[in-house]
TrEMBL record:
It holds the Pfam family AbiEi_4. Residues 174-265 form the DUF559 domain. Gene3D superfamilies: VSR Endonuclease. Residues 9-44 form the AbiEi antitoxin N-terminal domain. This is Type IV toxin-antitoxin system AbiEi family antitoxin domain-containing protein. Transmembrane segments: none annotated. InterPro entries: AbiEi_N, DUF559, Restrct_endonuc-II-like.
């Protein structure tokens, strides 16, 4: 494989020694750098001109992309965008800069020398200690729902502190971070809350007790999808279920409305079997 093709195959940035180990001589690398086909973000690394700037920044600072930045890049449900990049590095490394946060904690899983993006396990462990508990729970459940990690795998790791608490609370069933938020905020009620339960041929977002269904409207609740949801809501109510439907805006910006609706229904016993 041609040198630039080899670098492109490794996300556009790779250690020089890895390229040399694959038969690309130091002289050929130097020629490519002199011609502008490659750059050297730092000693020991080569990159294509259009390489991912986040990975280039990680290599430049002897770090790996981790924590919430890694979660964002994996496409996980993030309650709020991070204002800075989050990296992880060795305690004796010199990672520094005004535009990013560096985590120095010992990783749960070893990182290879040429690694620029952290493992899911290491990223989740850092998220547990870095972000507010509720935000961390949403991201953990998103990783479980996307099958990027399994609960038994997490349970075998030497988790401590808040990470251990997240392990006991998180569930793999939430279809969105909004479901995770609602369930987490109502655990104090002491009422059983199930996610993604199939009732009358369709899944419902949350089931409180025996018959209180809470549905969360996202961006797809329009057109044919809305018609189908309304039909299912009607079927549920005809079968004795109580249905409360709330929106993203209510959960994120007007939580008191959601709180009052659900707490009021619980107080009236609308979650109990008839």
């Amino acid at each position: 494989m041609h040198l630039t093709g080899f670098v492109a195959h490794h996300q556009g940035i790779v250690r020089s020694r890895d390229a040399i180990a694959r038969g690309h001589s130091p002289h050929r690398i130097a020629q490519a750098v002199a011609a502008g086909r490659l750059s050297r973000p730092r000693k020991g690394w080569i990159a294509l001109p259009g390489a991912d700037p986040v990975l280039v920044e990680a290599a430049r600072n002897t770090a790996v992309v981790s924590c919430v930045t890694r979660a964002e890049r994996l496409g996980l449900w993030i309650p709020r965008a991070a204002e800075q990049l989050h990296f992880a590095s060795r305690p004796n490394a010199k990672a520094r800069g005004p535009g990013f946060v560096v985590h120095w904690a010992k990783p749960l899983l070893p990182r290879s020398p040429g690694q620029l993006e952290d493992s899911v396990e290491n990223a989740l462990a850092l998220i547990a200690s870095c972000l507010p508990y509720e935000d961390a729970l949403v991201i953990w459940e998103s990783a479980l729902n996307r099958h990027l990690i399994q609960l038994p795998t997490l349970a075998r790791l030497p988790l401590t502190g808040r990470a251990r608490g997240l392990l006991t609370e998180c569930r793999p069933f939430a279809d969105s971070g909004l479901e995770s938020l609602v369930r987490s905020r109502f655990t104090w009620l002491g009422v059983r809350i199930l996610e993604q339960v199939r009732i009358l041929g369709h899944r419902v977002d949350l089931l409180f007790g025996d018959r209180l269904v809470v549905q969360i409207d996202g961006g797809t609740h329009v057109g044919p999808q809305r018609d189908a949801d309304n039909r299912h809501d009607a079927l549920l109510m005809l079968q004795g279920y109580r249905v409360i439907r709330v929106s993203y805006a209510q959960i994120v910006h007007r939580w008191e409305e959601v709180h009052d609706l659900i707490v009021g229904a619980i107080a009236r016993g609308e979650h109990l079997a008839q």
